[in-house]
Fold each of these.
Amino acid sequence: MENNHQIDLRQILGVFTTYKWTILVVTLLFTAAVAAYAYLLKPMFHTSTLVSIEHKKALTLESLLPGGVGAAAATSALDTNIRILKSRKIISRVLDKIDLTKTYYKCKTFRGFIIKRIPEDRPPFEVIFMDRSGRMSGKYITVIQTSENTYLLHTKEPEFEKEFRFGQLYKTPDFMINVIKKRDFDEIYQFTYNADKLSLINGIIANLKITKPTEDLLEIGYTDFLPLRAKKIVDEIAKIYIDYNLKSKMTENEKLLQFVDTRLQFIRKTLKRYGEKLKAFQEENTQLIANKESGELFNRMVAQKEELTKLQYRLKELEKLRFKRKIVYADIMRLASTGISTAQFDTWMEKLRQIR
């Protein structure tokens, strides 16, 4: 058995000896390929922020209605907020605040060839650019500083190369450009331009991830090869969403207050009408009531007094509700317990759905 093992080992060593150069070359090529891939690969960064969601409180008028769908609205509030955060309406507002039309790269070269483009969060210059021909989207545009006040601008498609001065606006048949220098630079820089808002929105949504770490929190996460840009996008999404949510709540409270004002006007008119009728009734039937000769008239007067008392109580509750900054479920339940009809709530909700 020992002789067999020795023979096998000699055979293996013989193979390595015979093909040593082939094995060495293959190993070196594989190592070089892995190293090149790792060098050329763009690193990706992930940043996130947390947003508190008050899903336990009523967020819609439906949840305030007696017998409404408050519980169902509470359970689905987080999912609704996730859809809002990833909506094109919110992302479009982000693009209005942050300029994502240009991406800057610092280039590594070897014998005149660009071998790596390193994304830059803080390039040494700022570009004001407009695509006049519609052919510049996604093309690499090269900027090389040639002196303290000048730079060389180069594009391959379309072929263009010319020296310009920093801080001055220039027009060509294909584009309009102004490069504003922030500091001197020796490296070769490039930038790309993309003004297609829909593709920018879809790109943000593709890299946006919304999760629910707890029942009261949403985590907004974004992945990008520019860490500063990722942070700006996440912060802006959170800010816009908070403003949007606050305005939605204010709108709902305003609608509720409009309803309260309508009911107040109705009850005031009704009180006035009942008061006039009661006064007239008392004047016309004072003698009969005093002698209690007409039980029916007396009962009618008592009933009208009771109705007047109820209306005064409803008016008092509506006045309280009108001056509250925030209307909650308990307020609506107390309002309904006074006998005020909630039918107008349903009518308003249908209008609110149509507006949304």
Amino acid sequence: MKTLFRPLLAAAVFAFAAPFASSSFAAEKAEKNEEKSEKDAPKGSIRPTGDLTTAQMAALAKVSFTDALKTALAAAPGVVVKAELEVEDGNLQFSFEIVGADKKTTEVEIDAGNGKVLDVDKG
């Protein structure tokens, strides 16, 4: 009886623990991918440090909001539903959420220093 009980107990423990182990593995993998994506993120021309106020970010920006908006709309035509100047992935950038004719939202990030497109994320 003991020899049959041990394999059954081991199987039961494995069946119970496996979902937790895989979710832990998935969480670790997601964290590594996030770290990798930050390292692989485009490097902007203005890389401020510390917490900045909106006024401080605006003073650092060398590209106007209007010029950044034109560049974003050229990259993803549509209607802008959200726009902000922010520090993301260490870059000072304009971020625009644009809804296209297909009703899908695209996020376009524009470097606040040189006006170049840093990223286009079609959602």
Amino acid sequence: DPPARQQPSAQHEGEKRPGGCHRGHHRKAGLDVAANTIGVSLEELRTALRDGRSIAQVAQSKDVDPQKVIDAMVADAKEHLADAVESGRLTQAQADEKAERLTERITDLVNRTGGPRGGRRAVSTTA
């Protein structure tokens, strides 16, 4: 029988994961960058996501091009990967693997409605 999968608990919330990151750290950092780029507070962005809006929709409502948000989030993620390599938490090969589809994943995140784990994608009204 395979070992039972352990569910994360509140006790492990601040625990470091392989690669040296904290659980939830990257998601929060990405949302911080998105909020700052859009010009809203992190709480305003979280509320909009909980209400079913995408990061792209929030950006457009503030006259910010969603691509600007994507670019900022990708740059931030690449900086975190470089820091992890420099500090020895990741090898360059591991960082390269993580960076491979970074732009695609962040673009999907920015366009997804229903929050970071919502799973529904926004329908683009532009061609």
